[in-house]
User: What shape does this take?
Amino acid sequence: MTTTISFDNLEIDVPRAQGPDGRDLGGATWKLNGKVVWTTEAHKAQD
Assistant: This one.
């Protein structure tokens, strides 16, 4: 079985974070285009 997920202009907001000693690590917005494909196989178990 193969599953494909396609996306255009997918936006992922990464929230601001604080590191050790309260240091600001910032945040970001990632903008992605593409697809993810995965394939699985089923196998009969042998006793």
User: Anything to note?
Assistant: The CA atoms of residues 17 and 25 lie 5 Å apart. The longest strand covers residues 2-18. Residues 2-39 form one domain.
